[in-house]
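go over whats below:
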Amino acid sequence: MSDKQNLEGQLVSQVAERTISNQLEAAEQIDISVETDILKIVQGQADGVTIAGQGLVTKQNLRVQEIQLKTDTLAINPLSVIFGQVQLDKPLNFNARVKLTQADINSALASDFSRKFTQNFDLDVDGEIVNLKLQEIQIFLPGNSRIECQGKVLIHKKGETRPLGFLAKLRPRTSKQTLRLESFHCNEGEGVSLELIVALMQKFKALVNLPYYTWEGINIRIKDMEIQQGSLIIFSEAHVSQIPEAISELTES
């Protein structure tokens, strides 16, 4: 917390730190600074919130090496907090810098939380629908702005199912470059057609080029990515129309 904070801001910051820490499985360090005063507290307002943390592990066993998050003016309905819900009186914007290690990413990809979003999807290959079911995937961060993906999928086509192992090397989209696939190798199974690879890359490109991603009332836009050896840094901004239920439940603890 900042030494320049007033007493009210320090007290609210301490409560916020304890509340969030109690909802984490582990935290090496967490520091929350809330800029507010007694009148704004009564009105459910704050001039801004800054969060900095290291080694944060959620109850879902998702780990973040580092996070820095800063919001703009925050307005919460005070009555909603009393009744165990957190409702925003107006939308909230924030900027975040998140650092994930290679181990963090692979652990997250193997979690039930992530697999329900990435496990199954369809591709249009020359007018024919081909289903891909992801069995496993691992990410490697060798540095030099490259990401390597190694995994296994099941390909469902015309009532037949066959396995495919692959290794892909790519350069993700950043503020300075577009998405580029450097290589794609099949290391298990019979291989795939060029048409399927093209359809897969078109699907992947459409996903990474979305203007924003939506999750439970939060619109998240990735502004930039920095790839280092063994770690990935993501710079993003978000527009929150309502606190997700999973986060709102923090007040019920």
Summary: The chain has two domains: 7-107+212-252, 112-208.
